[in-house]
Amino acid sequence: MYLVVSGEGETDIGKSNEAIGPLSKLIDKYIEPHSGFSLLEAEMLEVVHETEITRISKDKTIIKPLSRSGKKQGKETREFYRAARALAHVASNPERQPSLAVLFHDSDSNKWPDYQSKRQSMITGFEAQGFDNGVPFVAQPKSEAWLLCALKNGYQNCTAFEGRSGNDDSPHSLKGELEMHLGEPATRVKLNELVDDGEIDLAQIADMKSMTDFQESMKEVLGRMLGRPIE
Q1: Where are the domains of the chain?
Q2: Dihedral sign, CA of 157, 200, 142, 230?
């Protein structure tokens, strides 16, 4: 099994395998108990830079228009749809099969309809490309909410984080709260250290809808790929 991931930047999925981000490591750790080994350590994980996803998504020789339905979508959700199709294309490389693809993005909104439309756009994009093993990974409103749940709240009573502003410039931003809790900037290196030390575990986040949606989608895909139910 291969894992192909893409996201927004260095402090979430990362820019490359050499500059891997904490969420890529966390996805690998989430899968490991079911696969029986670390895909990252086995060199079966590929981080695809956002700029490469954007390039592929705009190449009409690769991502062929299917219908005019995309025209009805807002610009932002259309980008999610196109990104999912592009990542599905990368994951369909015949030399790296079977592949599982995870597309990450912050919702950047505390409104649930916005979250749902962005997540559904990813699902529709995977389907449009005929790719069955795609998993949408949308943070509500930002991935810092998940990190605070683990690091500050000890995985308890985390629902309120999802109702917070997704604006990093707001007076009480999630990013600011995370850095205050850490006592230092939330850099890629620092967050990776916390993941490597086992201080963040996606499987233990049980009361945040954006995370449980990811967990359910991942279990469904893993169950199909591994040929057994995943609890």
Answers
A1: 2-140+208-226
A2: negative
